[in-house]
């Protein structure tokens, strides 16, 4: 397996450091910060009204989420310049989970569209149904797409491709 530094794709060991415990995932929406580099960046901390993103002692450290405080609102997602924060809701349905992801492409998918669900490596892993599209001016051109996906894909799906485009 190639490493994150070589190909930009998080390894299972990388992900184990940032994924909430299964019991927390089962309780409802929660943010996951897949930010794996120490860089000078902290907009996620300043945007979190719940206090769920722990205060940085050094602006170069990676965000740490207090999963018990996080309500999965997703405010931090559109503030992350690296598009590295996602919200997963395993309690969304019996067969489906909800994945909220940042999206900065055109055209935006529409509610009800069936899109191709894509993993961290850019590979298609299945289909997803667009449940909601948030694109308010306050989000500064970073839309948040809500995707209903098969539960077994909720930790894999990190992007989507509008069918018939590109």
UniProtKB/TrEMBL annotation:
Organism: Desulforamulus hydrothermalis Lam5 = DSM 18033
PROSITE patterns noted in UniProt: 4FE4S_FER_1, 4FE4S_FER_2
UniProt protein name: 4Fe-4S ferredoxin iron-sulfur binding domain protein
Gene Ontology terms, MF aspect: iron-sulfur cluster binding; metal ion binding
Alphabetical UniProt keywords: Iron, Iron-sulfur, Metal-binding
UniProt KW Iron keyword: yes
Domain (4Fe-4S ferredoxin-type) ranges: 61-90
InterPro entries: 4Fe4S_Fe-S-bd, 4Fe4S_Fe_S_CS
Pfam families per record: Fer4
Coiled-coil region list: none
